[in-house]
Amino acid sequence: MQAGVPQVAAAADGRARGVTVRVLVLALMLVPLNNFFILFLSYERNIFDPTLVALFWNVLFILLVVRGVNGFVHRRWPRLSLSPAEMLALWVLLCVSTSGAGMDSMQCTFMTMQGAFHFATPENHWEDLFQKLIPTTITVQDPRALERLWQGDSSILEWRNLQVWLGPVFRWWLLMSVLWTAPVGIGQLLRKRWIEQERMGFPIVQLPFAIVQPRLDFLRQSIFWVGVAIPALINLLNGLHTYYPGIPSFPTAMWDARLDIGKYLAPLGRPWNAAADMFYVCLYPFILGLGLLLPAELSLSLWFFFLFWRFEMIVSAWLGFQQPADVRYSTAAGGYLALVGFPLWAARRHLAELVQRALHTSQREPGEPMSYRTALLILLLGLGVLVAMGIAYRLSPGVSLAFFIQYLFMVVIIGRIRAEMGLPTHELERMGPTTIYGTWLGPRVLSLQNLTTLSVFHGFTRGMRNIPFPHQLEGLYFAARTGLDGRKLLWATVPFISLGLAWGWFWTLFLSYNRGLGTYRGSFHTWFAGEAWNQLAGWINADAPVAWGRMLAAGLGFLGYWGLQTVRSNWVGWPLHPAGFALCTTWYMAHMWFPMCLAWLIKLACARWGGFGAVKALPLLAYGLVLGDVGTGALWIIYAMVRHVPAYAFWQ
Fold this sequence. Notes:
mainly alpha, 26 helices, globular
């Protein structure tokens, strides 16, 4: 347990079990409002939604409000107040339902499923290249319905629109419900190994864990309020600047020209301009706070390897090599495979033993949320249903099986990243099975039909930043540390996954038809609607052979990570965490490398010159930075929604 985070005190009554009727009712009431808020930010305000970071700040804000109201109720009517276990259960249920409205799941899928038809032109030749191969049962092709969707002034509740979307949306809802339920079995199989034996720290959820305590001792610490004051003042200044441009602003976010290092490299020409793209020194307070909760070796590795990749770009350009971005992504993909392969290999005997138990008995062991047989059946049955659905949507059996196995393997990777490292983001951009198969194998090996169906699936595999599995695993972590009933909580997440998806689809269609996708402030709608299909057209037109070079790069990335992990395991003083090798190629690390550098420098200074007291105070400073940024930033967004005025985005 990290410093400053006490154990949850067990309540004297059934409230300590967490998953109570009133928690379920409260969650049911909050899910539609929460999902509307997320989608309103993305579609109406062009604000990057909370699901792009590991700690969903929308749920954190809700938890703060609930905790504040609950404190008042506890003073007046103690028996009516929510217990810590109930608030933790509410946190998990809202997180898994938030996933259903996330950018990397429903939003990208929604754009992909209709973009191939709305944006087809004689110039891009999509009709000739692949339109006839697109599965009709999970896409929308009606030109009039799509025209109303992009122009607006219509409603999804009109039958002419509803009848077009009803069938495809139901099939997507069913597919993604199964896709996100199957990993429940994985969580059960890995629970004891990761939580009890390896004692993963789950850094991301230490803050919500602290918020639900009966006594909020950190509120009495001045260092916490220093942390709150810094982002509060920044957000006050920047928020006022949004409405009164004469007031100066303090730069924190990406895209601010004042923070762009690349503009100084670009005029220098080759080779320096090779590293100029997406090179910012962002100053997000809540990312800095999350960085302070990470181990020092990890925060060091994140900024070190980010700069290492930039240096590698410059050297490649100096030597005359034209290095495609896909080579870096392929190298990182190999690193990701090793990231989870290393611990799974170490746990191979444990997992084999669990499978043996599942085959010999169906009884649930004490302390386990479900029996190992049930977990294995959920996993295998879910995989079987997914493979069958892939075949129904025109994938060949072998490709369908390989696709969904790789997807589940990536789910495990993200679960491991969250459990062990607690990174502010775990984006797997361009490392999903659709992009990997298309880039490495192409149409000559996979066939055009397989590539086309895989492109329909591109939306929910392109980034995977908001899948429910890590939150379910964190719920099991809460259960191991408190009196929370892990079995009830794990089973409760399953219907809330489907509920979140249902509300996500409804609000997306409601907002889109009401306003019109083509009239929104942002351009990402058009980008995502065509991304998978432009990529597919590129594969078809290139008709490239098997990309052995990219496979070699992935192999080198795998060996590089494995080698760094071996060194780390045998050399206690090794300063770098090998995870940074893979993680720093992602798009979002361009937002986060500098806050990670600042976090490392602060931790280093405290350890060398501040003593034990300074090190112990760092989590309190981190809590203040995160809560101050999220609390005041969210209030500006709510203010803009109520007043119908432009919003200041503290995270952009």
